Amino acid sequence: MNTKAATPGALPGNGTTGTTGAAPRVSPLLWVPTGYFTMALAYVMLTSVTAIMFKNLGMDNGKAAEYASYLILAYTIKPLFAPFVEMYRTKKFFVLCAQLTIGVGFGLVALAMSLPGYMAIMVGLFILLSFIGATQDIACDGVYVTALDTRTQSLYCGIQSLSWNVGPIVASGGMVYLSGWLHVNVFGHDPKVFGEAWIDSWRIVFFIVAGITLVMSAWHLRTMPEGSRAENAPASIGQALTILWDSFVTFFQKRDVWLMVGFAFLFRLSIGLLEKIGPFFMVDPVAKGGLGLSNELLGIVYGTYGLVAVLVGSLLGGFFVAKRGLKPTLFLLCCAVNIPNVTFLLMAMYQPTSLVAISAGVAIEKFFYGFGSVGFMIYLMQQLAPGKYSTTHYAFGTGLMGLCMMVTGAVSGHLQEWMGYVNYFWFVMAATIPSFLVTWFAPFHHKEA
């Protein structure tokens, strides 16, 4: 899933998006693509790939989905500690420290797999790394919006978004594929048996990700600009707390705010229930109601075809909204996000063995998810965010979405185990109803840009 749209909330300012200081000495092409790729790699490894790893290591669906979902918390609440990052040193300093720590942390995860009680150690490391990863997001966004003038920001916006989306392809596609390939072809294990034999391949995967992150840290030491202080950045802890409190108060003073809060929280309700369970369904044995795919095939189908479909859908969705306008199309976009979830219900009912059919089912759902989700982000920008603290209020909206994904992800595995795949996917379809309701009643109080 593309979460790059959530990152503008990093700065606590009053609606300005950046400064217009001196032109950067180093071309943004040398650090914008690598900076946002590194952000996405850490995020996806922590919040999505860990769920597959937990599943491979023998954890049941309930716990695997729950533990991976809790790692979203730090990214959800990052607006609460973003002002404090603004106060100290430079933004580049925080980027480098975060990337160095994440690289070392992933290396420690790989080493911890050899220890007794490794699971508890890994989960503890993942929780710590999630907060450091969220700090990396805040600081890297800070460099982007303060080191580049507004014209350059607009010029590189597409590169920024594209670079972020390479991260999920590498993590959910490449790393998951590699784990399965190593498990079978290097270590000679049975891919259909889950358990501690998977430690060997996942250890190598985390060493590789650690190496990539450390290389990126060294690269950004040479190429990334320092980033200036954001406009209206707090000068003290007291001022930071005052700004946060005022942003909360003014947020809940908005007209029809609870309808907008409901929209932000519930629009992706069914997606949150599907996000972790979809990959589990792919790799679970046919006898348990799954499709019995290997990690290699999961990486290709989910991490490559699915993510490419999201990117294409997002581009076409953006063109569609730009041409027709958001207000007359928002409910249609909600239908695009939710109705194609029926592909998973159909696959659970018929359990196809054709890789083409499985890939088509995933691609259809992901394409329409990307197409419709554009409307969600634009609504937050144009209707929920405007006001004194537009960037922070936008972050509150995306934080509510993240909270929904965390809560639904945490319960999704337990519900699936209780219901079975077919009944669970019926439940996912029923969960689209609240999304339709909040979209139908979503207020429009600002003219579209």
TrEMBL record:
SUPFAM superfamilies from the UniProt entry: MFS general substrate transporter
Major facilitator superfamily (MFS) profile domain boundaries: 28-447
Membrane spanning stretches: 34-54, 93-112, 118-140, 161-182, 202-221, 257-277, 297-322, 329-350, 356-381, 393-412, 424-444
Organism expressing this protein natively: Pseudoduganella lutea
Entry GO CC: membrane
Protein's membrane topology: Multi-pass membrane protein
A molecular function GO annotation: transmembrane transporter activity
The protein's name: MFS transporter
Superkingdom of the source species: Bacteria
Keyword annotations: Membrane, Transmembrane, Transmembrane helix, Transport
Predominant subcellular localization, coarse grouping: membrane
Protein's cellular compartments: Membrane
